[in-house]
């Protein structure tokens, strides 16, 4: 999950701080999500996916 979010963020040319501001979170929260040390709320997941132009499955689905 984490690397998918970071890759999508970098592809969009956004810093953690810029993404955080756009989804009404803190830079620290985005960093923890990217390191898989924080489970975001569904609303935050949706906001991140929308901002990055990805689906929830693209960013958050764990493939086994």
From TrEMBL:
GO terms for molecular function: DNA binding. Keywords: DNA-binding. Residues 5-59 form the HTH cro/C1-type domain. InterPro entries: Cro/C1-type_HTH, Lambda_DNA-bd_dom_sf. CDD domains: HTH_XRE. Pfam families: HTH_3. The keyword Repeat does not apply. This is Putative transcriptional regulator. The lineage of its organism: Bacteria, Bacillati, Bacillota, Bacilli, Bacillales.
């Amino acid at each position: 999950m984490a690397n998918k979010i970071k890759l999508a963020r970098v592809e969009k040319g956004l810093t953690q701080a810029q993404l955080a501001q756009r989804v009404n979170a803190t830079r620290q929260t985005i960093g923890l999500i990217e390191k898989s040390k924080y489970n975001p709320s569904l609303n935050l997941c949706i906001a991140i996916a929308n901002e990055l132009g990805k689906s929830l499955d693209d960013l958050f689905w764990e493939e086994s």
